[in-house]
Specification:
The chain is an alpha/beta fold. The chain is built from 22 helices and eleven strands. It binds 1,4-dihydronicotinamide adenine dinucleotide (NAI) and D-mannonic acid.
């Protein structure tokens, strides 16, 4: 076991230890979703901000409410300190020690200890990285899924809610009863308009529990939107072994990420916030939406194309996809001709340079970002990554062959069998429904494509009603079926 102090001492010059003795930290932030991304992004930004400002009241109490219990125990055993290894494209690295997490919690069935901390006056921000599905929203419409079993449970048992939404409503209710100013809810997920969506979900949930509380939340609580960006692959045995042999320690909380990071935050907080903008890559703005749309369509849209087609083509990681020239050509074409052209920015923006920077980031050999990881939860990701752009391109009668190929790839992927006949481990809240569609229409591609496009939780009805859209996706699906994903990408690359 290593403690924070032994981590600090053991770095032997290999670590940037811009540290502080964490004993004076208090938790002004409660974070739900102590996964890889939080540790490499918000918690590291917060660590560096505290080191720069000496504002020790911005420590973090980080909790996992679904899974991730083992990670919490491992972090607790090392006083919640861990290292972040930042890999540069040239293979060099910077290792940082992060100590902003003052407390971590593995919340099992009884959520009340976490509720008490959220309701305490010292908590000023509740931040979230609960994945897209954690918001329990219909991905296509952004409406709360009122028939979701967890939501039904929370409405009936507000004193011990299961979801992050339920926890927030109940904690806000406790603060209201005690006359305590509400905390700010800060969503840091790759959800479009994440603050607005979190607000809508929480208010809809509150309306079903207590109409007066819902009104109070709508008037008093701030839900700033954010654009978050840093590629943080899930750790593997190999990446742990590599980091630990480099550092000569056994850090169970270690994270490997890229050097690049960006965080654009709407400056709307009710009881203060850390001065995150003191640290490179973070800024406060009045309107996040254009930055967020750009990132979701260009970065995440490309990622999903690479994930489905790359997985089917036998590429395990994004950097492996980028060794294939045809994949690079299609990705660049997608960014410049199908994503950038649909964006409206408040100021002149050099999309071509942004695209080249993304290609460089995807090519980073130090990041083993699995296509399988990005392919996960596609039903929750596809609408914001591809479909908003597709609708604009359709309306302007422009081509969208890369998006169509991505959707065709997604349909093959979620059908659950790869090109060699092996089963794909499809992780998605709609996995069963998607598999059922594939089985029902097996061997009848045109019907199968139509049936997938008729899933209105993913595709809004205007798309399945559009003949051009249905034809393009059917063509893409059939090309992958007949020629395989690698050849389908090469064929598209020839035409662009
Ligand atoms: P992870 O798998 O390491 O962690 C997932 C976290 O979400 C865990 O803490 C888990 O407890 C929590 N969670 C899962 N389902 C939940 C639910 N239904 N309710 C509440 N909590 C739930 O994943 P990672 O890498 O931390 O990513 C999490 C999210 O962060 C992503 O879905 C994305 O929205 C955002 N993000 C991730 C980036 C990355 O490169 N990894 C970059 C930018 C944003
Ligand atoms: C990825 C993102 O897992 C995914 O779906 O596309 O998590 C991506 O790594 C980040 O958004 C980069 O900021």
């Amino acid at each position: 076991m290593i403690s924070k102090h032994s981590l600090l001492k053991s770095h032997s010059g290999k670590m940037v230890a811009r540290g502080y003795d964490g004993t004076e930290l208090t938790a002004g932030i409660v974070h739900i979703g102590l996964g890889a991304f939080h540790r490499a992004h918000q918690a590291l930004y917060t660590h560096e901000t505290i080191a720069a400002t000496g504002e020790f009241h911005w420590g973090i109490c980080a909790a996992n409410i679904f899974g991730g219990q083992e990670l919490v125990q491992e972090l607790q055993a090392q006083d919640n300190a861990y290292t972040v290894t930042e890999m540069n494209p040239d293979g060099s690295r910077t290792v940082k020690l992060a100590t902003a997490i003052a407390q971590s919690l593995a919340v099992e069935d009884d959520r009340r200890p976490l509720l008490d901390i959220m309701a305490a006056e010292t908590t000023r921000i509740v931040s979230l990285t609960i994945t897209e599905k954690g918001y329990c929203l219909n991905p296509a419409t952004g409406e709360l899924m009122a028939d979701n079993a967890l939501i039904v449970h929370d409405i009936e048992h507000p004193e011990n809610p299961k979801t992050a939404l339920g926890l927030i409503v109940t904690a806000l209710g406790k603060r209201r009863s005690s006359g305590i100013t509400p905390f700010t809810v800060l969503s840091c997920d790759n959800v479009p308009d994440n603050g607005k969506r979190a607000r809508a979900a929480i208010i809809q949930m509150a309306e079903a529990m207590d109409a007066e509380l819902a009104l109070w939340i709508s008037e008093e609580v701030a839900f700033p939107c954010t654009m978050v960006d840093r590629i943080v692959p899930a750790m593997t045995e190999e990446s742990f072994a590599e980091v630990n042999s480099y550092l000569g320690i056994d850090d169970k909380g270690a994270i490997v990420t890229e050097a690049y990071r960006q965080w654009v935050i709407e400056d709307h907080f009710t009881i203060g916030r850390p001065q995150w903008d003191q640290i490179d890559g973070a800024m406060f703005v009045a309107d996040v939406q254009p930055y967020e749309e750009m990132k979701l369509r260009m970065l995440n849209g490309s990622h999903s194309i690479l994930a489905y087609l790359g997985y089917l083509a036998g590429y395990e990681t994004i950097d492996a996809c980028m060794q294939d020239e045809q994949f690079v050509k299609v990705t660049r074409h997608y960014m410049n001709n199908e994503a950038a052209v649909t964006l409206e920015m408040p100021e002149p923006t050099d999309f071509a340079s942004y695209a080249e920077k993304l290609i460089e980031r995807f090519t980073n050999p130090g990041l083993k970002h699995r296509t399988w990881q990005i392919a996960m939860d596609g039903s929750q990701k596809v609408p914001q990554r591809w479909l908003n752009a597709a609708r604009t391109l359709l309306a302007e009668e422009k081509a969208f062959a890369a998006i169509a190929l991505g959707i065709g790839g997604w349909m093959h992927y979620v059908s659950g069998t790869d090109e060699q006949g092996n089963t794909i481990d499809v992780r998605d809240p709609m996995a069963e429904q998607l598999k059922a569609v594939a089985i029902q229409h097996q061997g009848k591609p045109a019907q199968l494509v139509k049936a997938f496009l008729s899933l209105d939780a993913v595709f809004d009805p205007s798309l399945v009603a559009n003949e051009r859209f249905v034809e393009a996706v059917t063509h893409a699906y059939n090309t992958i079926r007949e020629q395989g994903a690698r050849q389908a990408v090469a064929l598209l690359a020839e035409t662009i």
